[in-house]
Amino acid sequence: MIVGAGDIGMSIIHYLSERGHLLTVIEKEEKRCKHIVDHADAAIFKGSGDEKEIWKNLEADKMDALMALTNNDKTNIAVCEMAKRDFGIPFVIARAHQPESMVLMKEAGADIAICPSIETRRLFLNAIESRTVETLYEQATIGFKLVMVTLPQNGAVIGKTRDRLDVSEKLSIASVFRNDGFVFPSESFVFKGGDRVLLLGSSDTVEKAAEKLREVEIT
User: Fold this and answer.
1) Pick from 105, 138, 140: which is nearest to 210 by CA?
2) 170 and 144: one domain?
3) What are 107-123's pLDDT values in tens digits?
4) Does 90 share its domain with 59?
5) Residue 19, SS3 per DSSP
6) Of 69, 95, 114, which residue sits at a domain end?
7) Residue 183 and residue 178: Cα distance in Å, rounded?
8) Whether residue 98 sits in one domain with residue 195
9) Whole-model pTM over 0.70
10) Over 90: is that where the pLDDT of 167 sits?
11) Checking DSSP bridges between strand 144-150 and strand 196-202, what pairing results, if any?
12) How far apart are CA 149 and CA 200, in angstroms?
């Protein structure tokens, strides 16, 4: 079941329809409903996603999964709540327009809440810093970050041991990838140029540590 056939919803509808999934869609704009009828195999219900009467007519209690993909966070929160509380849909994914709405969607029943603006920011930052730093995962609501840092050949930490980094309690060096293998670095581990270092912890400490690892030796 998909609620909202906008920019994200429409592409997901096409993708799932082409792969033979049985889809039920709620969409309030008539033009989008017609497009789905003409280009996808799905049952269409015209109306707002938070209208409970529509849900009763489409047998929502028989759905395996639901995606709340409207452009309105309040609607998506209401959809998550109805899906879990009233119809017992086992798996719910919600789109958050504002990052702060992710927590509310989880509280309302979403198993997964995704904020496209956060994901887009991560992709753009990765594009800018892809030669040295890659953000693998970020949870803005709790201030958590996971990054991979590639040490430059003339890096300031090259030849130094791990214990000289002065690592914060809110930061962990999870592993270091070197050549075709990886190690869990001890305090006496010595960094080499080209090492790829996996950092995780609070966002601010991870960013500071990444900057330190990226510093080059000025000669």
Assistant:
1) 138
2) yes
3) 999 999 999 988 888 77
4) yes
5) coil
6) 114
7) 8
8) no
9) no
10) no
11) antiparallel
12) 11
Closest CA to 162 of 144, 181, 183: 183
How does DSSP classify residue 82?
Answer: I
Q: Which amino acid is at 155?
A: G
CA 103 centroid distance within chain: 13
Say if residue 82 is in the same domain as residue 151. no
Q: Determine how many CB atoms are found less than 10 A away from the CB of residue 153.
A: 10
- 193 touches 183 (CB < 8 A): no
Cβ proximity of 83 and 69 under 8 Å: no
The Cα 40–Cα 15 span in angstroms is: 9
Strand 112-114, strand 91-95: pairing: parallel
* Domain edge (last residue) among 114, 135, 161: 114
Alpha helix segments (H runs only) across 40-151: 52-57, 73-81, 101-108, 116-129
Domain that holds residue 170: 120-214
Examine the domain organization and report whether 73 and 134 are in the same domain.
no
